[in-house]
């Protein structure tokens, strides 16, 4: 291993340690798959509730499953500390999704992505979300390609990444 690689690894470790030890609020992104059992959704909701209740700013997207559980928990704790960034416009969301999303105070739409497939728009949206956060918590399956790519990109940006697998 060369010296520049060793220095970079030490810098990364120091940055991660500083983020973990930070006592003030953090900007935390919570993302995950749509296909989440109800019991897991409840756990994710409790986690987002606790994160926001302790003063952290939570960011997520608007998909059902993981992201909706995160939204429910954050809305119960403090709606002002939640930001939801949609991959496309609100009009492109399901009726059920729109009902919940219309209650979100800090909602960012991306109507310029309406012409893209949901997968392409989601990848762009996830990049935007991780560019705004200090830490990423992700719930995925081993074949959740978009989410796993998001985790890789977050690590490349030196974000603290916590990845939970459902399988």
Task: Provide keyphrases for this structure.
alpha/beta; 167 residues; six-stranded parallel sheet
Topology diagram in text:
Elements: H1 3-21, E1 27-32, H2 38-53, E2 57-60, H3 66-77, E3 82-85, H4 95-101, E4 106-108, H5 118-132, E5 135-140, H6 145-156, E6 160-165
Parallel strand pairs: 1-2, 1-5, 2-3, 3-4, 5-6
Quick one: biggest sheet? 6 strands, parallel
Total domain count: 1
Question: How many helices does DSSP assign?
Answer: 6
N- to C-terminal separation? 34 Å
Please estimate the helix content.
40-55%
Average pLDDT rating: 90
- Corresponding CATH architecture: 3-Layer(aba) Sandwich
**What's the β-strand tally?**
6
Regions with pLDDT < 50 over 5+ consecutive residues? none
CATH fold annotation: Rossmann fold
Q: Over the alpha carbons, how many angstroms does the gyration radius reach? A: 16 Å
Q: Which CATH first-tier class would you pick?
A: Alpha Beta
Characterize the overall form.
Answer: globular
Strand ordering within the main sheet? 4-3-2-1-5-6
Listing every helix as H and every strand as E from the N terminus to the C terminus, the arrangement reads HEHEHEHEHEHE
**Strand percent estimate:** 15-25%
Helix vs. strand class: alpha/beta
Organism: Spirulina subsalsa FACHB-351
Protein name: DNA recombination-mediator protein A
């Amino acid at each position: 291993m060369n010296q520049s690689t060793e220095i970079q690894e030490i810098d990364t470790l120091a940055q991660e340690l500083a983020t973990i030890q930070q006592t003030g609020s953090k900007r935390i992104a919570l993302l995950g798959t749509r296909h989440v059992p109800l019991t897991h959704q409840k756990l994710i909701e409790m986690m987002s509730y606790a994160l926001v209740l302790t003063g952290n700013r939570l960011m997520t997207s608007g998909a059902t499953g993981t992201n909706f559980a995160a939204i429910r928990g954050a809305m119960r704790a403090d709606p002002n500390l939640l930001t939801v960034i949609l991959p496309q416009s609100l009009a492109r969301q399901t009726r059920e999704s729109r009902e919940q999303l219309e209650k979100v105070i800090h909602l960012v739409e991306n109507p310029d992505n309406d012409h893209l497939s949901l997968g392409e728009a989601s990848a762009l949206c996830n990049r935007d979300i991780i560019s705004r956060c200090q830490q990423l918590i992700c719930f995925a399956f081993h074949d959740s390609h978009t989410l796993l790519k998001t985790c890789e990109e977050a690590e490349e940006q030196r974000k603290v990444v916590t990845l939970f697998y459902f399988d």
